[in-house]
Amino acid sequence: MSALPAASVSTTQLSVTLAESRDLPLAEQVMREVLDSDLGGYRSRWHRDLDDLQGAYLSSPRSALFVARYDGELLGTAAVRPCDLASPPNPEWLAERYNQPDVCQLVRVWVSGRGRRRGLGRSLVEHTVAWSTGPGGYERVYLHTDAGVPGAEAFWRSLPAREVHDARPDPFDCVHFEIDVEALLHRIG
What we know:
By secondary structure, the chain is of the alpha+beta class. 32% of the residues lie in helices and 26% in strands.
């Protein structure tokens, strides 16, 4: 009788946690990497939260920053904050609909190129939405994405998210979504 081959054991570990102050330099590094590689670089009008992550997410009520590690390396981020859509560039009806106390905006769901296709983005969204509708005290979760970034629109459509406005052709290929919170939480539940 021949011996069975040894079973392979995977030591890969994915973890998502609330960011702590010590995580901020690496989180900022990942964010700026994604900005430069996928989104055309830093624009102070849209990205000034990166200049003070501590103030924007760790010290700001009802805001949070999550980080994802894969095999111990910080490779992804996701954040939540009260929804505050500017109009313009967003339509006035969209700002009125989502700039409400019960609505948060999911932002900075960004994964380094080294960490993609490993479940980091999905896990970040799940943790962030669970926090938002639990300790965060929100009822609805809004987001927008740049559909011009390869894989971005398909990623959001693979989740329980409902398109609420397709702004294309705008300069940012912007598509707006609302997460179906109940369906997402049931799925991870």
